[in-house]
Amino acid sequence: MALDSLRIADLSIQFSRQQIPGPPIPEFLGITDNASVLARFNDEKAWIEFALTRAIPSSYTRRSTSIDGILNGVHSEWAYRQLEAAYDGVIDFRLEEDGKRTRDLMRIRSLRDLTHDRGWHELQIGKNLEISIPES
Fold first, then answer.
1. Which residues contact 40 (CB under 8 A, 6 or more apart)?
2. pLDDT in tens, 72-109
């Protein structure tokens, strides 16, 4: 869904219009690198409720995948708890700088219904920005 506005009231109307019966919407992969920007233009409760009642459930009904970036340290603990409980998985990314060395790390904090390794793993960025996790 292309965003024409960052106000939740406008997004809700736009979202509802897209749900009106018509030709089926094809499956898709949606990536939002920073959904936290909505907090700049909306009450926290309003945008969390929009995410919980509209945005997140729509991925299930459309049989699609949505990856949403949420910044750490910007929102209330209530907001993080609500979002983490609603999504099927939570992946953390972290940047460590130690003098001249920089390390990009990731871990899967939670992944609904699947066993997974919860440890931090260093990401390696290769040619053409390909990202890999070296085997231990």
1. 6
2. 999 999 999 999 999 999 999 999 999 899 999 999 99
Query: Given CA atoms 55, 87, 46, 68 in this order, what sign does their dihedral have?
Result: negative
Tokens, residue 71:
């910044």
Contacts for 9 with CB less than 8 Å, ≥ 6 apart:
none
Tokens of 127: 């040619």
- Residues 112, 48, 104, CA angle at the centre, nearest 5°? 55
> pTM above 0.70?
yes
Q: What residue spans in the chain does CATH classification 3.40.50.300 cover?
A: 1-87
Name residue 68's beta-bridge partners. Answer: 32
Superfamily for 1-87? P-loop containing nucleotide triphosphate hydrolases (3.40.50.300)
Helix, strand, coil percent content, the chain, rounded in steps of 5 = 35, 25, 35
